[in-house]
Amino acid sequence: MNHDLFESMRIAIIDDNILAGIGLQHMLEDMIPMAEVTLCQNTGEINGMKDFHQFAHYFVSSRIYFSNIDLFRSYSKKTIILVNGDRIIKGMRTLNVCQNEKKLAHDFIALHRVGHGEEKSRERQDTPVLSPREIQVMILLCKGCINKEVGEKLNISLATVMTHRKNIIAKLHARSLADIIIYAVVNGYVNIEELL
Question: Which of 35, 59, 175, 195 is deepest in the core (most CB within 10 A)?
């Protein structure tokens, strides 16, 4: 492992599952002995830090991320969302915490290198470009409207709603409405409070 990559690195772990946080903290301290790893259970602990912006990475549980999306959107290049399984959050870096330590270490190093430009970063050609009408349809779907209601609110036919919905699913590579909602929240089209 190239320890020069991690010289004087400060890492924050924000996870309300204290046991998972301690496990990740110990693993990172073993992997990167020269790093300073700070463990917080909530954003209240980190908001009080004057030097919060100086961390190289923020490992954040997905629940805390979505509860504080505006805060972490400001640090999107430094934020790594801790997920269970292979869940992908479009436009964000994720780390599957349900894998063995060797694979977890490999994935972290790869994220660090790409995040700091040490590997040639490739352009995202798969970045979806939704039309303004598709965005309107997506927002209404996220807010719980059924296809008929979307058509009535936008003054378009049910067939047109279905076409827009099909295009949104294809462009986002969505497997379900949950994937569409995550995309809409992460990209600021809807506020998570509106969905509760």
Answer: 59
3-state SS assignment for residue 130: coil
Overall average pLDDT of the 20-44 stretch: 82
Q: Which of 89, 92, 189, 70 is nearest to 134 (CA)?
A: 189
Q: Has residue 109 got a pLDDT over 80?
A: no
pTM of this prediction?
0.60
Architecture of the domain delimited by 132-195: Orthogonal Bundle (1.10)
The overall average pLDDT reported for the chain is 79
Structural domain boundaries in the chain: 3-115, 132-195
Cα dist from 26 to 68, 98, 169, whole Å: 25, 16, 40
Q: Over 70: is that where the pLDDT of 79 sits?
A: yes
Nearest to 82 by CA among 100, 71, 95: 95
Distances (CA, A) of 134 to 76, 80, 139: 25, 29, 9
Look at domain 3-115 and name its CATH class: alpha beta
Query: Hey, do 3-115 and 132-195 end up sharing a CATH topology, with the first three levels equal?
Result: no
- The kind and range of the H/E element at 93 are strand 93-96
Give rounded-to-5 percent helix, strand, coil for the chain: 50, 10, 35
Identify any residues that bridge with 36 across adjacent strands, giving them in sequence order: 10
